């Protein structure tokens, strides 16, 4: 009969403890460590903010496992940047990645956990009962292209471009003389 949101125990020797991202983990441990939405989308462009979350994961949170051989680590989140915690963990090669894009992009998604994406048609919604076409269109209108790619499709792209950098281009008042001679 505990009325505390951060700590809950049941009568079968189980418990749940919640701490905020970057919270203190010293003296606490668990069999299943779950991290939900480690990045604030408003601050994800800050390299220092992203690095602080990665540092916290590597040096505090991930070290809190009761049994490193048997305990599980779970991160639940939208991808928000190419260098977010998810990418850091994927680069380690030891995590199972369950990717659920809002719209099916034609790639087969499956995991060793038994999940296999049942969708077959490009653009098909992930959860049409909860997010019907009109809801997806509203979200796509509200987000910029980078937000749609990251938060909805789980495939973050560089804000300033990939192969072609945004800074390479600019507006000109007239075509350069060389371009006029080529006509």
Describe this structure in words.
The protein has five helices and four strands. With 183 residues, the chain is of the alpha+beta class. A two-stranded antiparallel sheet has the order 1-2. Strands 3-4 form a two-stranded parallel sheet. The protein is globular. The N and C termini lie far apart (82 Å).
The assigned structural class equals alpha+beta
Strand content: 5-15%
Estimate the mean pLDDT confidence.
86
Shape type: globular
Strand order of the largest sheet: 1-2
Largest sheet: 2 strands, antiparallel
List keywords for this structure.
183 residues; two-stranded antiparallel sheet
Write the topology of this structure.
Layout: E1 7-9, E2 15-17, E3 32-36, H1 47-59, E4 72-76, H2 85-92, H3 133-142, H4 145-152, H5 177-182
Parallel strand pairs: 3-4
Antiparallel strand pairs: 1-2
Quick structural gist:
With 183 residues, this protein is an alpha+beta fold. It is built from 5 helices and 4 strands. It has helices at residues 47-59, 85-92, 133-142, 145-152, 177-182, and strands spanning 7-9, 15-17, 32-36, 72-76.
């Amino acid at each position: 009969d505990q009325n505390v949101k951060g700590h809950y125990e049941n009568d079968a020797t189980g418990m749940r403890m919640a701490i905020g991202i970057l919270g203190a983990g010293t003296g606490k441990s668990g069999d299943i460590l779950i991290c939900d939405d480690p990045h604030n989308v408003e601050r994800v462009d800050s390299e220092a903010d992203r690095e602080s979350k990665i540092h916290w994961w590597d040096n505090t949170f991930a070290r809190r496992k009761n049994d490193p051989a048997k305990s599980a680590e779970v991160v639940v989140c939208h991808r928000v940047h190419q260098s977010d915690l998810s990418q850091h963990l994927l680069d380690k090669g030891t995590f199972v990645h369950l990717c659920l894009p809002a719209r099916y992009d034609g790639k087969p998604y499956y995991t060793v956990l038994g999940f296999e994406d049942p969708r077959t048609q490009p653009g098909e919604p992930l959860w049409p009962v909860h997010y019907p076409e009109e809801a997806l269109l509203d979200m796509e209108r509200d987000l910029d292209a980078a937000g749609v790619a990251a938060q909805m499709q789980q495939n973050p792209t560089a804000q300033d471009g990939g192969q072609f950098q945004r800074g390479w281009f600019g507006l000109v008042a007239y075509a350069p003389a060389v371009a006029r001679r080529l006509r």
